[in-house]
């Protein structure tokens, strides 16, 4: 339910950054775009610094033998595609859905009321569809829409800046995914017999967070701390809350615990900032790698991930659950190993390898924590 809830959930609030993006034209929003058939084009002259980097764009284009699999997942190294449905799928970045789906699993486990019967399994699947393909897809699409100028510098071959999909088609996709996700949330509240539509309001809150994360004038992502925490909360807290509210009761202690865990989500969100340093710097976005430099930002990233999990393990130990605490600590060890093997060596070159290697242990730790809170 990134950003959906976006990150980072995701899920990711005061001290909003005041950094402004210089732009010679009014900002477009999904609520005021003219539905024309003209194709979207991005000119490098739209910012003071784009001229200097325009000549580099062709070198960033993917190879002609780009991966079709990467294209479907929405990650770098993707093949160029003309099929509109494949392009639509690419915009939703399916590679970002699993954390949201897993968050629902953790929430259901933490409720202590999930049973392996047809009805509960069906409810959980609908909740996963709401959190992943619909609301995370909405978050990723709207983020790409508002990042089109940055992508014109960093990744000019992406669907929107390259003109592979039109303005009208992008805006339609944003609305369909948003309204579809909210409809599923309302359905889940009715299905669960809620007197108060908890899941629906969580979906509305997550969707609003996704919007202000990407869109001006707030554009939370302009501030590396607030934006990345909002993203982390979207990916960890919001789907957990939805799953727990669906099958049980969402309690204040769980809200606090999952928000603490979202600091680890902040660290995960920073991983994605390293590959966008050039465009962020050119357009004045204060991501942590831009604000602190690559070396310092690397250690902030791993520190947020590791210290958060160690703190949660300490909480479980203090709550009289030593076996769960030890299990969580055991899952931190391989994450630290892969941080030194990949991420700390080169966060740009090895970002995908690092996330594929280390993040499974982090999400298993989330489930360990959820099971601990259910007993």
TrEMBL record:
Pfam (any one): UbiA
Bilayer-spanning residue ranges: 174-192, 198-213, 225-242, 254-275, 323-344
Presence of keyword Plastid: no
Compartmental location: Membrane
Gene3D superfamilies, A to Z: UbiA prenyltransferase
The keyword Translocase belongs to this UniProt entry's keyword annotation: no
Chief localization: membrane
Keywords: Chlorophyll biosynthesis, Membrane, Transmembrane, Transmembrane helix
Cited CDD domains: PT_UbiA_chlorophyll
PANTHER family named among the record's database cross-references: CHLOROPHYLL SYNTHASE, CHLOROPHYLL SYNTHASE, CHLOROPLASTIC
Cross-referenced NCBIfam families: ChlG, chlor_syn_BchG, PRK07566.1
Name of the featured protein: Chlorophyll synthase, chloroplastic isoform X1
Gene behind the chain: LOC107430876
């Amino acid at each position: 339910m990134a950003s959906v809830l976006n990150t980072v959930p995701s899920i990711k609030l005061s001290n909003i950054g005041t950094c402004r993006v210089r732009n010679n034209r009014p900002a477009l929003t999904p609520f005021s775009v003219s539905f024309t058939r003209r194709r979207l084009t991005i000119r490098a002259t739209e910012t003071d610094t784009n001229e200097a980097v325009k000549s580099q764009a062709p070198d960033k284009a993917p190879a002609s033998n780009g991966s079709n699999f990467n294209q479907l997942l929405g990650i770098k190294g993707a093949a160029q595609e003309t099929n509109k449905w494949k392009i639509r799928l690419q915009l939703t970045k399916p590679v970002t859905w699993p954390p949201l789906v897993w968050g629902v699993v953790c929430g259901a486990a933490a409720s202590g009321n999930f049973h392996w019967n047809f009805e509960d399994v069906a409810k959980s699947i609908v909740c996963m569809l709401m959190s992943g393909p619909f609301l995370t897809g909405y978050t990723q699409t709207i983020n790409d829409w508002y990042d089109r100028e940055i992508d014109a510098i960093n990744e000019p071959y992406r669907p929107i800046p390259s003109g592979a999909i039109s303005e009208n088609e992008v805006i339609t996709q944003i609305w369909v995914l948003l309204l579809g996700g909210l409809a599923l949330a309302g359905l889940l509240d009715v299905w669960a017999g809620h007197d108060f539509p908890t899941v629906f309001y969580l979906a509305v809150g997550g969707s609003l967070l996704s919007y202000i994360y990407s869109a001006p004038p707030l554009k939370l992502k302009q501030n590396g701390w607030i934006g990345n925490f909002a993203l982390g909360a979207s990916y960890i807290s919001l789907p957990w809350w939805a799953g727990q509210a669906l099958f049980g009761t969402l309690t204040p202690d769980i809200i606090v615990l999952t928000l603490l865990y979202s600091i680890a989500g902040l660290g995960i969100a920073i991983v994605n900032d390293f590959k966008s340093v050039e465009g962020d710097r050119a357009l004045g976005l204060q991501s942590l790698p831009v604000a602190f430099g690559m070396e310092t930002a690397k250690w902030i990233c791993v520190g947020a991930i590791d210290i958060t999990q160690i703190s949660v393990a300490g909480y479980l130990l203090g709550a009289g659950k030593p076996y769960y605490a030890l299990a969580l600590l055991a899952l931190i060890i391989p994450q630290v190993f892969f941080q030194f093997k990949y991420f700390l060596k080169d966060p740009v070159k090895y970002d995908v390898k690092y996330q594929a290697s280390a993040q499974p242990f982090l999400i298993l730790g989330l489930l360990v924590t959820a099971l601990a809170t259910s007993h």
